[in-house]
Design a protein that fits this description.
By secondary structure, this protein is an alpha+beta fold. It has 2 domains: 2-154, Ribosomal Protein S5, domain 2; 159-292, Alpha-Beta Plaits. It contains 9 helices and 11 strands. It has helices spanning 57-69, 91-103, 109-123, 130-137, 172-185, 187-210, 213-229, 235-246, 272-281; strands spanning 2-11, 22-36, 42-45, 48-50, 76-81, 140-144, 150-154, 159-167, 251-255, 261-266, 286-292. The mean pLDDT is 92.
Length: 297
Amino acid sequence: MAVGHAKVILFGEHAVVHGQPALAAALDVAVRATHRAGPDLHVQLDDLTFYPDDGTRLGEALAALLEALNASETGAVRLSSTIPPGAGLGSSAAMAVALARHWAPDAGLPAVLGAARKWECVFHSNPSGVDHTTSAMGGVLRFQRGADPEFQAVSIRPLPLVIAQVEAGADTGRMVDGVRDRLRRRPGPLTAALTLLGACTREALPALVEGDIDAVGELMDVAHGGLAAIGVSTASLDRACHIARAAGAKGAKLTGAGGGGCVIAACQPQQQAEVAQALEAAGALRVLVTQAGVPSP
């Protein structure tokens, strides 16, 4: 069985676009690929079946991945996934990593990353690389944008999280453009807020390594304030963070582009169920009890 993990942005979203570092973590939910004998090559995911170059984007992505691996095997591959789709947790990249590992089990990490990037390019013309790199490498990645994005692997004790999707997500490009426009209009306050988000990332890293959930939670609260200040939070995201904290979470923040989507809450393990129940009772679209920073298989 070959595995590709989901991912979540812990700290630094939006600020990373403006030169600050960010932290992404692999989750313990994943896509798993298993082989089934058969006369032709195709992939099955639930009731969906796709073939290389079958006229769909999934088929195009599959053909690109196989070409990058120089793979020519036949037979069906069955994918099973515990990653909620459409929640900004990198389900597409996890599929790519699982399939690359399935067809090239002895390939090194660079080959897996290269094939997964070819897959991701079909869906995102110029992907940042965060999703598939985190999925394949596991743990926590500190990353910084540049001509060549810099990824630094960090080993941590898995962080107990509750993730709640509270509303539909907004378009990432539109949210990034909105922050850029506000930065042009109000450079002083916006630069200060982005610097604050970078400081949260830097302070969170040693707290994660030490397993200090209280400190991580406190920094999540500060970071959410910074994200609200740059205009990417919503009333629903703010409310979900307050509900998670009131139910016992050590801290909570939005994750990803904002404008909707998910919040993450850092919890002691014994608090996760109560926090999840509170978010479900408040009407979250889906709630996931998970761990962040799990190692790659």
